[in-house]
Amino acid sequence: MSSLSWPDDFVDKVICGDAIDVLRQIPDNCVDAVVTDPPYGIGIDTWDKPPDITAFTEQVKRVAKEFYAIFGQMPSLANWHFAAVQQGFSFLEHVVWIKRQILPNARLLRGHESICIYAVGKRKRFYQTEGRYEDIKLPGLFTGAVSIEALDRYIKDLQVKISRGRASEIRRSSKRQRNFAHFSGMRQDRSPEFANFTNVWSFFPPSCAKKDGQYLHPTEKPLAIMERLVEMLTPESASVLDPFLGSGTTALACKRLGRHCIGIDISEEYCAIARARLAAVLL
After folding, report:
1. End-to-end Cα distance, the chain
2. pLDDT, tens digit, for every residue of 130-153?
3. 60 against 123, higher pLDDT
């Protein structure tokens, strides 16, 4: 690959090339977070080959300032986690994404993927830890924690209290109070609109969410997941790096949320798709 000039050739660009080769051209501590979905090595296509995981993780540690989030499945996920620990990353969270789509397997059918989140430096607290109530509570329907009827009754009861002028009972607490409750383990269910994130997320894969059932990439992730990760791990105007950009969902999330993105992918085909998606966004 020809030499690239920082930052003009990197920031808010989709770069076609080998992830490790491009990473080596990025200066130290130049991105706020790395959010990526690397190849799992399960034989989907010619591109589905993991890189040198140790060399890759070393480069991520060098360029990232605060957070590193990576998608994966066992058993290859264990290799990625081991490399992160060896490089001195601080493990923070293991998020289970319930896909609402069962995939065939020789033994147990598979219906989830994992997201591991690490801290690079001293910061351990996320920038955003809450979302819409229904988005946060919905995963409980799939784990037996709550029925949809109970959830519906609870939300309606809260709305009735508001309509009767008893909003003080369920007012939204201040951000400082919510953050304190989050880190102290206190339950915060006072708002009918917002709730703290859990480590179980539930989003349809893009192929299920689209009417035609088509996807832009075989391992395309939901835009909602990438937006949640971007908001969790970065403030506005921050920079996010995705070294395995695929069809560009991470970059699209960044553009919609006012963040900068550096996207890398080895496939000319998917780089073209990512650039087209970004060009079509109207802000």
Report:
1. 33
2. 887 766 766 555 444 455 566 666
3. 60
Residue 228 · residue 254 · CB < 8 Å: no
Q: Which of 126, 110, 131, 261 is nearest to 195 (CA)?
A: 131
Under the phi-then-psi rule, with left for phi > 0, alpha for psi from -120 to 50, and beta for the rest, what region is 217? beta
Q: What is the pLDDT of residue 141?
A: 53
DSSP string, 12-41: TEEEES-HHHHHTTSPTT-EEEEEE-----
Per-domain residue ranges for the chain? 13-129+199-279, 131-196
Sign of CA dihedral 268, 33, 186, 131: negative
Work out whether strand 110-119 and strand 260-265 pair parallel, antiparallel, or are unpaired.
Answer: unpaired
pLDDT of residue 86: 97
Residue 137 φ/ψ, nearest 5 degrees: -80, -20
Q: CA dihedral in degrees (266, 268, 273, 277; nearest 10)?
A: 70
Helical pair 53-63 and 76-86, crossing angle rounded to 10 deg? 50
Tokens at residue 272, please? 């073209």
CA 270 to chain centre: 19
Could you write out the three-class secondary structure of 213-232? CCCCCCCCCCHHHHHHHHHH
CA gap 272, 16 in Å, rounded: 9
May I ask the CATH class of domain 13-129+199-279?
alpha beta
Tens digits of residue pLDDT in 229-249: 999 999 999 999 999 999 999
Q: Where are the alpha helices (DSSP H) in the chain?
A: 19-23, 53-63, 76-86, 133-137, 140-143, 148-163, 175-184, 206-209, 223-233, 249-257, 268-279
Q: Phi first, then psi: give them for residue 238, nearest 5 degrees.
A: -75, 175
Q: What is the per-residue pLDDT across 175-184, written as a single tens digit (0 to 9) for each?
A: 444 444 444 4
